[in-house]
Amino acid sequence: MTRPVIRLRNSLTRSVEEFEPLDPDNVRMYVCGPTVYDRAHLGNARPVVVFDVLFRLLRHVYGADHVTYVRNFTDVDDKINAEALRRQKAGAKGTLEDLIRARTEETIAWYHADMEELGARLPTHEPRATEYIGQMIAMIAGLIAGGHAYEAEGHVLFRVRSYRDYGALSGRSVDDMISGARVEVAPFKEDPLDFVLWKPSDAELPGWDSPWGRGRPGWHIECSAMSRELLGESFDIHGGGIDLQFPHHENEIAQSHCAHPEAAFARYWLHNEMVMVDGKKMSKSLGNFFTVRDLLDRGVPGEVIRFVLLSTHYRKPIDWTGKDASARLKKLTRWSDKLREFANAVDDGAFGDKSLAGPSVNPPAAIIDALCDDLNTPLAIKVMDDLAKQGDWRGLAAALAFLGIDIFNSPAGMEIEASDEGVRYRQHHEAYVPLVKAFFDRWQSARIQKNYVEADRLKDIAARAGVTFQVTKDGPRAQMEDDFDPAKLEALE
């Protein structure tokens, strides 16, 4: 059988190219993971979802046993150290190293739980930077021996001008970069562009013994050492958010090529664009910053978050809006209801029949074609729309499963509606039934007393909070819609 041709936009060449792995029996991909000092925000989630889709596609095309996916955890970082010091000063027991480990373990557990809610598979390997300090020290020593790095005041720095192709990934010239805001100036640098490979640690900070004294690695060397150890000196794909293209990925390329000049390092570079919120960059000062857990706790299902992230092509900025999330929830709910009906019809009432979307069921060819076209997930969603219109529920179920939208086995937020004394709700809104019920009773009381002005006022307040009051043939009822927002109901009163 002919293998599908995958075409990907290579950031290094700025063109869409046919993907040809170094070894079809061992396709290798590295994606920069999180720095584990706090909860993952929506921007952190986008590369997870994007490269999870690519991981699924590569496994489909080359075989599940022939793809190696590495995504790291950066657990050496000044923000982690600062949080551990804060806890220690607040009276937390244990050494600083104990508190750092506790914080990173806690954050990694959060990350795994949140990404699982988004339907992301675990990578093949999830290395932690602290587990590869020896490899980093060895790589740094090699760079010094080759004249590409130097020691200064307890630091080791990379000589950027020793790598003639520096700037090729980001399209920047070395001279233009000197005035850039992200260049750190220090008196011990030979050149303002030189970046840190190793830095000293004082008694309050974690550190490891090295030829240059007790210290810790710089950020950039971590990924180069971990990718080389787990994937080799040359591998196929390196991915991450566009915010990492410079300086992080640019620096990775420079130090890796200088450490292993005969190797290719990463051959294809993929970058996803940023996430905006209501047209603005996420910022705590603007009040539009939220984590994945914030959304989940507000009742936004993980399947919906994933669906929204896939609705825009990965190379375009995505604008998260509550309205868009609500529309995606309604679509998934509609599809879920139809799939339930179909599963009941073909399987004598057993919802979630594995024959509909199990691992042995291939997705429609049109889905694979769309994803082979530089991960064109918006086109894949259009294909699913067409499948729904055609009533091809098996095809839709297989497509959803392939894209990681598991409404069969994890139908969070798409549950069958329940009813409580005239208040209809979906299960993820169950906790707010008493609040809506009290409002509903006031509306009914106003109607009975023929106080229609008050009844209309209460009805309008409820509508703005995502609750519909109406009189049906079965009597008055309140319908908690998919975009129900309890905070609005409380605030508007």
Structure description:
The protein is of the alpha/beta class. The protein has three domains: 7-276, HUPs (Rossmann fold), CATH 3.40.50.620; 299-402, no CATH class; 418-492, no CATH class. 43% of the residues lie in helices and 16% in strands. Strand 14 and strand 15 (423-425) form a beta hairpin. Helix 12 packs antiparallel against helix 13 and helix 13 runs antiparallel to helix 14 (393-402). The protein starts with 6 loop residues before the first strand and ends with a helix. Mean pLDDT is 88; it is low at 348-355 and 410-416.
Quick tags:
493 residues; alpha/beta; Rossmann fold; 3 domains; four-stranded parallel β-sheet; four-stranded antiparallel β-sheet; 17 helices; 16% strand
* CATH class bucket of the largest domain: Alpha Beta
Q: How far from one another are the termini?
A: 64 Å
Mean pLDDT: 88
Secondary structure: number of strands: 17
Q: What percentage of the residues does DSSP assign to strands (E)? A: 15-25%
Q: Number of domains in the coordinates?
A: 3
Rg, Cα atoms, Å: 26 Å
Major β-sheet annotation: 4 strands, parallel
